[in-house]
Amino acid sequence: MSASAAATNRSHGSFGASVRWLLRKLGGGIFVLWAVATAIFFGIRMIPGDPAEAILGGPGSQASPEALAAARAQYGLDLPLHVQYFGQLWRLATGNMGTSYSLKIPVTDVLRELVPSTLILAVLALLLAWAMALVLAVLSTRSGGLGTALASGLEIVSAAVPHFWLASVLIMVFSTALGWLPPVSTNTPAGLVLPVITLALPLAGFLGQVMRDTMEEAQRSAFALSARARGESETGVLLRHSLRHAALPGIALSGWALGSLLSGAVVVESIFARPGLGRSLLSAVTTRDIPLVTGVALLSAASYVVIMALSDIAERLVDPRISAP
Amino acid sequence: MSILEPALPSVDPVLNPHTARKARPGGTFARQIAAHIPWVVSTAVLLFFVLAAIAPNLLAPVDPLAINPSEAFSAPGAGHLLGTDESGRDIYSRIVHGSRASLLIGAAATGIGLSLALVLGTIAGFGGRWLDFGVGRILEVLFALPGLLLALVFIALAGPGVATTVIAVGLTTAPGYARMIRAQIIALRTSPMVEAATVLGRSRTRILTTHILPNALAPIAVLATLGLGQAILWAASLSFLGLGAPPPAPEWGTMLSAGRTYLVLAWWMTLFPGLAIVLVAAAATVLSRSLKSRGPR
Amino acid sequence: MSAGEPVLRVENLNVSFGGRNVVSGVSFTVHPGECLALVGESGSGKSVTARSLIGLAGPGSLVQVETLDVAGRDARNVSQRSWRAIRGKHVGLILQDALTSLDPLRKIGKEIDDALRIHSGLSGAQRAARVMELLDTVGLDDPIRRAAQRSGELSGGMRQRALIASAIAWDPQLVIADEPTTALDATIAASVMARLGELRQTGSGMLLISHDLATVANVADSIAVMQAGRIVERGPKEQVLNDPQHPYTRALLAAVPAGKPRFTRLSPAVDTPATSSHQPAKIVSAQSELASPGEVAAQGEAADVVLPVLSARGLCKSFPLAGKANFRAVHSVDFELLPGRTLGVVGESGSGKTTTARIALGLIKPDAGDVRLFGEPWSAVPESGRRSRRSSLGAIYQDPLSSFDPRLSTGSLLADALSSGATRNPRSHSKRINELLEMVGLEQDVAARNPARLSGGQRQRLAIARALAPDPRVLICDEPVSALDVSIQAQVLDLLDELQQRLGLSYLFISHDLSVIRHMSDDVLVMRSGEVVESGATEAVFTAPQHQYTRELLAAAPPLLRGR
User: Fold this and answer.
1) How much is the pTM?
2) How far is A288 from chain B (nearest CA, A)?
3) Which of A39, A69, A93 is the last residue of a domain?
4) A24 touches chain C (CB under 8 A)
5) How many angstroms separate the CA atoms of C133 and B255, rounded?
6) Count of domains forming chain B
């Protein structure tokens, strides 16, 4: 009895508790960003190779010693390590991410330009993946044994499909063979279809597996039996009870979903020749454009922190069993 | 509600959950067979690729690197089962010979990820409050670069190549494993089983070595099976992006990367190596799911 | 029994799953205002029967019935659509634990409102008013606040009442209650059962399903006893309870520990080979005729020389609660366990029984006070100092399976308990293992099996065998029979009795069940909210309780449990 009394107390989070929760999340987020920046800063200096070389176009560029020295001076690489480090932290804290080695323009400008394009792609793909996972879960619970086996197989295969291969196959079928959709992605509806499907399908496979498991459990539960005994129809049980339960693991996986979407974006944006964060990250990685890599890494770490905080709130809204923030 | 798991009448579950779970009708023989099909198929698929990795010449005698310009871009057919690539190399042979590289990369990456996770998870699970807190923060940072991002950042620092790919994929998968291992160890540490052993007068080290670690390892085997498929997938993605194994090597991701150029001309160069990845990853998932449901409790 | 058409008439009901018969040839009727109790142990088919009556036997089931009249309608061959019009409106179903039987994600007001909305005709405002009325009817205070809460935020008793409210929203002619009070504490169960009894006064017929004859005895008008899918006996309550005809009914009644003096057998003697070979069944009419070793000592001249085997002084333990003040689990608890005797600890959930047991076992350290084992410091010494003395103290738990290493077979499990070294090879201890198995009434071939494949009763016997392996003098039993059916419970209690007499063991016996405690204990502690409210010789406490709470507890127990 004492346990349930405690539950009652906890569920009514006061304003003070919410502020404390927000401060904790904020502190955690700043720590993560600091750690990512620090790891990259020292990581690049621990690995053999001269950063100045990368600025001038990589090891193959055969830059002259004078040019290297000039680049070092320009980017402050000749200063003592701690001066460089704290200088870097200060610049990052004030929103200055430095200049991209390869593009020679400020990293913040690059990011500002690319974020919307990737965001559109990711949000559409996330929505589609959720819709597919839910539809599959609902259909399989309504259609009995064979449907469940079929849905389960479909989910496992979708989750095992690599983005880059799926993109190629889709282009082969819908662009090359049928000519219905363009192989190069633009922000037009037709140009978005293939990349969005490519991103959404593997994600839907993963989400579907966990959501369907939870849904089936809910369908078999005592509360579903109670609802049926109240005269509730099967559709009613599904809509009022099981769907809500199925959404929970989906929300809990949103941080993971973000990872899937961003990794997918690297591949998809490259294949569909679509400008975006992923494609820029890939070219930054191949040219060892450390300021740009740092910029994208910090941006995705920040979005991870925000998404986790949001999914935390969403989870608490749907599931009162978790104590309120 | 399904063929695989017939829904059953719940027979007074509260009184005795164990007997209730036991009380499931056997089902017909055909049903039991049907329930085993996914398991049998996925095992067969994995065995095929493992055999291909160990003794590729047994399954594909043709040299995967033998160039034959006159037969370039042959469509799948009698001469070349799955067609040839731009240099006339046999795709089937290259897929079979490529399983060693792909499986090894996947296994090595999973091994690295699991080892790192085992260290972090065990420290967090046993080390007391402060170490648990410290490891928790490290994991949080690793989680903040989800999916391929951590691998890409690592490659940006360390440069591309097979070794980097293996470590990068291992790093990417480590935090997830670590969190599961930590939870597993904490659950075991506070379990009635350990309490019973304490009451019998067993020392902490003996409880750790005879009860906690062996029981924690079984689920990790399941994890590793599932992880292998995912690691192969990640590694192939990196190879495809030109960050893994260099081109002439018969590695699945690299083959797909080459096939991309000739997508319009030779669809088989893209379709079949990709299918191999899908087969292995899906089979690993099915196998780990059935291992999980068969495991003790 | 009231006149009028029966609200439920079943003739020759058969239910099978995949060709396996679960219910065979079941027939009964329920009249308005009548309460029929369907009693049986796990697997007897009583819950499936109840669900079949409202067309919810579940997927894969085959239901055949000659006559099925539900609330005045012929319910054979009724479509699911028509069933939905009957369910909730004319028949209400109340399931076991409302924590799982009410959707944990939804407000209970919504759940109750659902029942009204589905069979609609009422406006939103009317429904809201009716929800408040219903919550009030089932005895929930502050209905407006309750309606906005979820089942997880309510106590066990409150949410069970909410579940009842959702089932009786339309004043159904028939209420089916499947183990409605099983998950509840005795005092709460009594008030919920009383509330259910009141429903009949409005003319509703009730089918009450339970595993326990004793708990239905208060409310039921007639009783039907189910075994293996069949009704083996049926009749008015007084007749079934006082003059049972079928051997199974008699065995069930004999298994109820209430009113049976210490060491009276509860189960038929044939069940335990150990009993038949070493110790003939004892039927003792009065406690004084058969004194346990401890009593012999206590009654002798040297009474004051007898030292307790286990004693506690002023035990206190608090646990930190999230954010708020500490939760006081145990507060200044004293007890003495004398050699060869049983000290019963009884209390409801959250009373601190289990914390007391864990402190006594040296698993948690008390904040204050100390435990002594054979007069020597026990809780005060570090674990390294206790380890060598642990062999004299054993424990058994409510869920034995979770206390077994899942990788070990029965034999290895016992070998592990026997060997202080590394060897766990069953062969090196085979003689002692067989001895232990025989002692607890298990066949030797069990040794090769995995405990997960044993029945609940067998598992608890195995747990006892393991606890006995190091030859302990004291056994701490924490709810050892709470998860077992009555007849299995009887066998395990008999076994514990017999082992105590044979080996001179002392028991610290913890249970929420008054009748079990009364049957098993020489002395008793009554606990509430971490404190001992009353203690003394069992019979004295039970016949002349001094504390108000003890009286409440006793009053809450059904008459059959208080002893006849």
Assistant:
1) 0.79
2) 5
3) A93
4) no
5) 72
6) 1
